[in-house]
Structures are given as C-alpha cells and as structure tokens.
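Quick one, probably user error.
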C-alpha cells in the first residue's frame, strides 16, 4: 500500500503551491481580460490533483473536465505552456485552439479536458480498453465532479467499465454543488460512492483536504488496477473556493460553511502536517511558495511574449492528415459490378477474378480483411459478436475473438465514446449504431468529442474511428427506424461522411475509412443490403473525397447519393430514349466533397439535378446545390432541381411509404423540368418526342 513518506509529502506540497499560485494569477489576469473565454479554477482542490497524478507513470492517461488546470499541471504539463494556452498564443499547449476547457498534453499522458460535463467519462473507458487489448498494465484516470453523476454518460460508463472490468479509476471531486445548484436540488443521494454501489465498483470516500488519505487510497486502487482488476471509484469530498467560473457572483455561497472550509484548506493543512512531523521547517515552506510564485511569473512572461496565431492558422487542424492516402480506384466510368451501370470496365480487359456478393456481405468481407491486416482494428456495438441484425459482422467474433469483437449494452453515447477513447489511444475501432435514427443518442460524443479532438488539441490527438450505421425507408419500420440524417453529421467540421451506393463501393470505401486518421460516419442504405453484384476477390481501396462518374453525358448532370444512384442511372436511360444524354455522378463521400468533379460536369452540361432520399428541406442536396451555384453560376441554363423526400416523418402504411420514397420517376421529372426550362422559342424540347413516344408522362 502507498504510504506518504517525507520527501513525497514535500513534493506534493510543491505541486500544490504551483497549482495554487497558477490559479490565483489566472484569476487576476482574467480580471484584466488577459486570458480568454470561460475560466474554471481549482483553488481548494489542489490536493486531489497532486496526490493522484504523483503516482502515475508518464504512459498512464488522465482525462479531465472543464476545471482542469490543476490536473494538467500535476500530470506534468509545463505551466508556461498552459498559461500561453489560456492567453490564446501559438506556444500554448494546443496552439491557442483549445483554451482553458480543452487542455491537452499528449506527450505527458494528459489526454485532455472537455467543456461538456461528463463527456470525458466514456473516452477514459476507451483508453482503458486499448490498454487491455495491448496487454499492457497502463491505468486510465478520469476526473469529474458530482454534477456529472446525474448525466446519462456517467451511468452508461460506470456500467460498461464494470461489465468489462476495465483498468480505470474514476476520481470524483465531490464539492456538493453542480455549477450553481446545491446537491439537495439535483440528487437525493449524498455520496457518489453510494450511487455506484449497484454497479459493483470497488470504492472509497475520503476528505479532499486530507492529502495523505487521498494518496494512500488512490495508491491502493492503482496497484490493484495494474494487476488487472478494476474499475474503481475514489470520491474526494472537496470544496470549490472560487465560483463555477471566474466572474461568477457566487450568490449561492453560505458564509458560515465557507469559513469552515477555509480552515480545512488542503495546502495549509499539508504544509502544517509536514512541519509538525519535522519533514519541513517553516523557512523552507515559505521558500516553496516563493519558488512557485516565481515560476508562475515566468510563465506569464513566456505567454505574453508568445505571438497570437495568424488568421487562417486554425483550418489546417480540422482534419488529421492521411498518410499514404490511396490513389487506386476509378474516378470515372462504371465501377466494376455496379448493378445499374452501363459501359466498359474502367481498367479494360477481363479484370480480376470476381464473385457475386450482396452489399452486406461486402461490408462483412471488408471488416474481416481489415481485421486480418491490422490487429488494431476492433469492432464494437450491440449484438455484433452474433452478427448484428443484418449479419454484417457475422463470423468476426469466431475468427478474431471476443477481445476484438465486443458486444455492448444499449448505450449509444458510451459506446461511441469508448470508440473515440480507443482511437485516441491508437486502436482503429469500428463502432456499429444499428440505425442512424439512434445516432441522436451518440451525437454529443460524435460532435463534441470525436469531431473536435484533433482541432482542440492543436493536432496532438487523432480519432481514427468509423461509425457504421444504416439509413433509409422502405422496410415499413416507421418514423424512428427509417430516417436519412446524413446532413446533420455533414454539417460538422472534423467528421468525414461516406455513403456507398454499391457493394464494390462499400468494400473499397470502408477499407479507406478504417485506414483514415479521422472519424468517419459510414452510412449504409438498408435497401441496398441484399442486392447482388460481381465483386473482385481482392477489391481495391477507394479514395475518400473522390466522386465517381458512372455515366457520361453532355445535356444534364444528375448527382445522386446512396440508393438513388441506381435510380439516377435508370432515369438516365429514360432520358437517353428521349434524346437527352445525362451525366450521372455519385459523390460517394459528402465530407470531403469532390466539388471539382461535380461542378466541372455542371459547367459542361449547364443543367443539374441533385437527388437524395433524405427530406428535401435542409437536406445535403441544398448545400450541394448552393455550392454548384457558386461554382457554375455563369454556365447554368436552368435552376438546379432538387429531389428528396417530403417534409413529413416516414410513414408505415405501404402506399404512404412508397409515395414518400423518391426514385427514378422523380429524378426523371426533375431532369425534364431542367431540360425544358427556358427552352428556345419555336424549338421542341428533346423529351417531347422520341420515336413517337411522349416521355413527359
């Protein structure tokens, strides 16, 4: 068991004084508007940070919340780099991109703070899972406050940590107030250790001002976690000496209680303890405080001398750069066995050996190939070990084991967060969310954590994960299992969004998505799952961000996604019978978007139709139409036509759902409108007659 010896006690006191002086100096700088954004100070909680982090190795990982300065400093982050980050300077920990609530120092095992209460908890589980997959003895620590205990992420994370027996230590700094709300108004349970009791966590509650007790309790948990046990909860009853944020009026304070807490100040208490035991004389104690103050003044000077970032410096950090991005795969022409494409093979000749497979089998094969090639690839999700509802993951658990194919509870938020944390730790997780409708339950993790980690950390963290999900109507499943919500995630910088339209595209794009260093949302339309097509035995990767021109034409461009690509090709056949040659383009990826190919086509044809299954209003087609308008306005001969679903939820009744789903007929009608728009007077539009048949009906 860890025992606080004299030298360690003095070292802890030194760390606590460094944190205390840092925070008090930041408070003064905030009053003078020299640090930026919301500032949450940890005065009064220095003992927890110091006693915990002093026992960790460099490779042990710490996650924190919005009150993270002390945790970062205790884990080894240089005070001058932390100060520069708070001032928004280029020499800050995160180049000024993260700020106070998003500190990261990857080199020292501080994987970051988050401004979303409880949002860090699932990430810590993912990091701990990665340590277990690597068979290492690293331990993950996650700090949080008692306010986070009422969040769904907390309960999902604690349950999953206990279920998987992960080497993670939850450290709760229970200060009795959630932002401005007292405990009595947000819970009926006084101790967090009582909250986690039903989950079976090993737990202990100590006074947050008793540094020796914190040190010993945490040390005992740490030793057991390294031995493969876990998870653990250490609850420290602390006091927040300053407001929720710097500048808070603190109207909720009780003066009597405040005075009592001041008498229990952890810095003063440990210093007195060290002096009483003869470990430190009063003069040396004063010197420690003065040394800390001098260090922080040097940190302030360093930060002030560091320049602000140049305008435009943020954009390069939205995405991590892909190394060895594949250039294989056709840019134009029908790709291999696309069921609706016509024309010669792009490579000519007989092509590689092929077999006929379904779309969903192509997904399964791509996952298996990726897992064979790279032991970092793992699959996570509900029922994935048994194959999932469509058998997309069938057989993977048998081949690769349950350590790499993990069933999860129905906890989409935590499951997504686990994937993010595992990806930050170096794995390449593929997480399955059964229906895109359920992605709403994971959006906090996907949007606030996965999409922003690389950016907020100034490029220190990357999130090489894939979130697979399904979309689309047609199965009579109703309004909560049939939506197409790809526009939501395509609005988020930092995410990539892929929508394959064929088995060949699915396998080639999924391989690239798994290899990509960024979070990729991979959206599969269930209506395509059991369509069969020829697929090479060794499919090639397809580059993300590169559109596919399936059919060439000079009269109109049809841009369609997912299921509607086949419908667009069918509409193009009808148009050709009427004398109109349509060019059909599948973007394949919405983010990044190959606008060059799409706009180049429209500039040649002068007319465009944009088609997707999602609701037309606010769909991705609206953005695509706007970008086409910007890039090809001077060449447009007609307004851009949009095809999508009506502004209603998806109905169940067969005739209603059939009417809801756009298809070849709607694409054809939109193309006809574009062709006939402002047609020269006295000249028949080409669709009016074609061998005596009227194609307008």
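Nope, works fine. Designed sequence:
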């Amino acid at each position: 068991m860890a025992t606080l010896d004299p030298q360690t006690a003095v070292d802890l006191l030194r760390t606590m004084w460094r944190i205390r002086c840092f925070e008090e100096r930041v408070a003064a700088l905030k009053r003078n508007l020299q640090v930026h954004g919301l500032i949450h100070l940890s005065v009064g909680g220095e003992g927890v940070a110091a006693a915990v982090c002093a026992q960790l190795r460099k490779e042990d990982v710490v996650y924190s919340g919005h009150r993270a300065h002390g945790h970062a400093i205790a884990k080894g982050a240089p005070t001058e780099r932390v100060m520069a980050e708070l001032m928004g300077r280029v020499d800050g920990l995160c180049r000024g991109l993260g700020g106070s609530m998003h500190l990261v120092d990857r080199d020292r095992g501080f994987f970051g703070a988050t401004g979303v209460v409880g949002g860090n908890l699932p990430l810590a589980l993912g990091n701990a899972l990665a340590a277990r997959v690597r068979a290492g003895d690293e331990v993950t620590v996650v700090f949080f406050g008692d306010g986070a205990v009422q969040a769904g992420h907390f309960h999902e994370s604690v349950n999953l940590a206990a279920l998987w027996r992960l080497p993670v230590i939850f450290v709760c700094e229970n200060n009795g107030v959630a932002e401005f709300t007292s405990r009595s108004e947000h819970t009926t349970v006084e101790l967090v250790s009582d909250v986690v009791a039903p989950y079976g966590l090993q737990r202990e509650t100590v006074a947050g001002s008793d540094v020796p007790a914190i040190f010993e309790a945490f040390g005992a948990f740490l030793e057991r976690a390294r031995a493969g046990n876990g998870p653990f909860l250490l609850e420290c009853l602390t006091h927040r000496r300053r407001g929720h944020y710097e500048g808070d009026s603190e109207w909720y304070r009780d003066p009597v209680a405040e005075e009592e807490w001041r008498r229990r100040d952890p810095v003063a208490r440990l210093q007195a303890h060290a002096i009483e035991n003869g470990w430190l004389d009063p003069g040396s104690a004063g010197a420690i405080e003065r040394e800390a103050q001098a260090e922080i003044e040097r940190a302030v000077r360093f930060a002030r001398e560091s320049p602000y970032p140049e305008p435009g410096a943020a954009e390069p950090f939205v995405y991590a750069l892909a190394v060895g991005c594949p250039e294989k795969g056709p840019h134009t022409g029908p790709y291999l066995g696309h069921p609706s494409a016509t024309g010669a093979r792009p490579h000519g000749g007989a092509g590689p050996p092929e077999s006929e497979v379904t779309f969903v089998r192509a997904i399964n094969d791509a996952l298996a190939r990726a897992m064979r090639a790279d032991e970092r690839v793992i699959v996570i999700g509900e029922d994935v070990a048994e194959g999932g509802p469509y058998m997309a993951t069938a057989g993977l658990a048998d081949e690769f084991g349950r350590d790499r194919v993990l069933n999860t509870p129905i906890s989409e938020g935590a499951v997504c967060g686990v994937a993010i944390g595992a990806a930050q730790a170096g794995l390449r997780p593929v997480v399955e969310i059964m229906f895109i409708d359920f992605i709403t339950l994971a959006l906090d993790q996907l949007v606030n954590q996965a999409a922003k980690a690389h950016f907020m950390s100034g490029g220190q963290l990357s999130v090489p994960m894939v979130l697979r999900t399904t979309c689309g109507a047609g199965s009579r499943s109703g309004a909560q299992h049939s939506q197409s919500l790809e526009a939501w995630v395509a609005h988020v910088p930092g995410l990539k969004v892929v929508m394959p339209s064929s088995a060949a595209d699915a396998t080639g794009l999924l391989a690239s998505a798994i290899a990509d260093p960024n979070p990729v949302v991979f959206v599969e339309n269930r209506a395509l799952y059991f369509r069969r097509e020829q697929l090479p035995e060794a499919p090639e990767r397809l580059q993300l961000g590169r559109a596919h021109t399936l059919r060439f034409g000079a009269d109109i461009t049809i841009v369609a996604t997912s299921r509607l690509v086949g419908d667009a090709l069918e509409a193009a056949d009808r148009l050709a019978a009427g004398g109109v040659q349509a060019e059909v383009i599948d973007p394949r990826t919405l983010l990044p978007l190959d606008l060059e190919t799409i706009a180049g086509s429209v500039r040649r044809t002068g007319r465009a139709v944009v088609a997707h299954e999602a609701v037309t209003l606010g769909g991705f087609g609206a953005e695509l139409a706007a970008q086409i308008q910007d890039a090809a306005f001077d060449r447009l001969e007609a307004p851009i036509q949009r095809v999508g679903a009506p502004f209603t939820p998806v109905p169940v009744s067969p005739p209603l759902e059939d009417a809801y789903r756009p298809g070849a007929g709607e694409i054809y009608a939109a193309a006809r409108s574009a062709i006939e728009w402002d047609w020269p007077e006295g000249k028949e539009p080409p669709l009016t007659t074609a061998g005596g048949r009227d194609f307008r009906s």
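The domain at 6-306 is CATH 3.40.50.970 (Rossmann fold).
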